[in-house]
Amino acid sequence: MRPFLRNQDTPFWNRYYETMPREQLDRLHLHRIKALLAHAYSTSAFYRRKLDEAGVRPDDIQTLEDFKRKVPITDKSEFIMLQQERPHYGDTLSLPADHIAHHCETSGTTGVPLSIPFTTYDTERYGESWNYGFWAVGIRPRDSFYFAFGWGLFSGFWSAYWGVRRLGATLYSGGGQNSEGHVKMIQRLKPTVLISTPTYALHLAEVARRMGIDPASLSLKFTYHAGEPGPCAIPAMRKQLDESWGAISGELLGVAEVHAFAPGCPTREGVHVDETSCFSWSRDPATGKEVAEGAIGENILTTYVNNAQPLLNYRTHDLVERHNSCACGRTWAFLKGVVLGRTDFMVTIRGTNVYQSAVENVIGQVEGLSSHYELVLTRVSSMDRMCIRAEPQPGLPQEKYAELSRGIDKHIHDALKIRLEVELVAPGTLPRYELKTRRIVDQRPKEVRRALDRE
Predict the structure, then answer these.
(1) Cα 272 from Cα 346, distance rounded (Å)
(2) How far apart are CA 453 and CA 447, in angstroms?
(3) Is the peptide bond before 31 cis (omega within 30 degrees of 0)?
(4) Which of 25, 99, 325, 342 is the 20 to 30 A CA-CA neighbour of 368?
(5) For position 449, what pLDDT does the model report?
(6) Residues 228 and 364 occupy one common structural domain
(7) What is the C-alpha to C-alpha distance for residues 117 and 379, in angstroms, rounded to an integer?
(8) C-alpha–C-alpha distance, residues 230 and 242, integer Å
(9) Is residue 334 part of a domain?
(10) 378: Cβ–Cβ under 8 A, 6 or more apart, which residues?
């Protein structure tokens, strides 16, 4: 069905799939997983070796439980190692190289980037998932999109571009513009949708105000975000985005090498797994066993989208709270609060487990504090410590800083029952980022540091 023939009033991009009963969804998953396993085993040297070492053949998988228990877990580090040994893709391809239509890479914010090959079909399927989220917040083919970032190899926003093409909307590229240039382009072109990371959208609003422009007076009706925790993960950020731009903000959770796999829910309290394009389940990262509905576990993904470099039972390192139903009517798995933490980032402060997202949620509720802050990790006498380094809102008198610092401390203690150090710095001190904002500054000894970002 062509986009402009869809019912414009429905919240569903594809009602048939989005409301498919669980039993039927699981039958579809098993069918696709069996086909994918057979394909990967016969065409990918990596998967043939991986499955042979585990003593598993594709025909051994007759249920989803078989798949979760018997097929080995894969991890980004394996693919990066093989790609370094033999650029660009090692022996992970499942199709001849001449089928590759688009080469992307992860952002590489924590080390060596991962190369990601896409066929033309992959790009179509990857883009499709954005439309479930676009449609859910009210974006339609009549809208126009402004992309506020430079175009490089990072796949995250290339896939958003593929999504806009699939939607049939108008697209304006902001490549080559600085922040003031983006504001001027939005003012001149009058797009109705802004695409960026959420923190960069807040930064652009600040820049507009410095230019004497009220961002809420501009043409935007929606802002849509990916790349870092956004409006479906952090309610305080949702409020800031909505009020700054006078628009409705939305979010998509993706893993660059896997898929734009979880478009935002209309409730904006989490995201739904796009179960037309991937299979996911949650496991205890310590035991490897599947966790119950509503329990926090690591999200494990299998994508049906990346046919050039299949990813099966792939570790995302994201900790999620999975539910099988949602008030919005979708039957797809619902990840409440999006990503709650990382398996490779959980700091224990005086016996209390502290997740980055939990601290961010509390910080966003403190009146007088800007959206610019860092969480600085140190280690003293074998104990981890966290300091919140933050900027007050511009215009706040310096004599109010001590009161603001006490307010942050109280909010953290009331919500998390711990005390964290607080350091206020002058507005404009902390760095600004066009893509992913670095919230964590890990100053602990090298041997205890862990990768903190999903690339």
Answers:
(1) 24
(2) 17
(3) no
(4) 342
(5) 61
(6) no
(7) 40
(8) 12
(9) no
(10) 384, 385, 387, 443, 444
For the residues of 286-312, what is the DSSP string, one character each?
TT-PBPPTTSEEEEEEEESS-SSS---
CB 84 within 8 A of CB 115: no
With respect to residue 380, please indicate whether it lies within any of the assigned structural domains.
yes
pTM (global) more than 0.90: no
Same domain (yes/no): 248, 359: no
Please write the tens of the pLDDT for every residue from 34-58.
999 999 999 999 999 999 999 999 9
Element (H, E) at 382: none
Question: By the 8 A CB rule, do 139 and 222 touch?
Answer: yes
Write the single-letter amino acid at 347.
V
Nearest-10 Cα torsion for 328, 236, 208, 107: -80
Two structure tokens written together for 322: 């999975």
Model confidence over 300-347: pLDDT tens digits?
A: 999 999 999 999 999 999 999 999 999 999 999 999 999 987 876 667
HEC string for 73-108:
CECHHHHHHHHHHCCCCCCCCCCCHHHCCEEEECCC
Unique residue bearing structure tokens 């439980």: 65
Instruction: Please state the separation of Cα 327 from the chain's center in Å.
Output: 22
Determine the straight-line distance between the first and last CA of the chain, rounded to whole angstroms: 34
Cβ neighbours, 10 Å, residue 120: 10
**Residue 114 near residue 106, CB atoms below 8 Å:** yes
Domain region containing 385 = 347-448
Tally of domains within the chain: 2
Burial of 15 (0-12, 13-18, 19+ CB in 10 A): middle
Overall average pLDDT of the 404-414 stretch: 90
In a domain, 114, yes or no: yes
Domain for residue 376, yes or no? yes
Residue indicated by tokens 């402060």? 349
